[in-house]
Amino acid sequence: MKRADLPGKFLAMDFIPTVFNIWSQCRKQKLPLAIFIGLCLNLLVAPVVYATAAGTLERSSAWAIGILGGVTLAMVIYLFVVVFQPERF
């Protein structure tokens, strides 16, 4: 039986070009993909928030704070672009 080298196939360096490839292929429905990527990034942020709170927060609260931080960051970037490039809007 032949063994598959799965860790060799799914390296972290291959992840980013794969995401960009999927993003460029998906032309009509970008919102579901953006929500999925945001939730995946929240998988990295929520444990950090939960660990920083030293057990005073529940896990669901840590997830909510992570999502709120992501939405806030997205709004800041959007407003920055709108202020400095108003002719695009």
Automatic annotation (TrEMBL):
The chain crosses the membrane at residues 31-50, 62-84. It holds the Pfam family Potass_KdpF. GO terms for molecular function: P-type potassium transmembrane transporter activity. The keyword Transmembrane applies. InterPro entries: KdpF. It comes from the Bacteria. Keywords: Membrane, Transmembrane, Transmembrane helix. GO terms for cellular component: plasma membrane. This is Potassium-transporting ATPase subunit F. It comes from Dendronalium phyllosphericum CENA369.
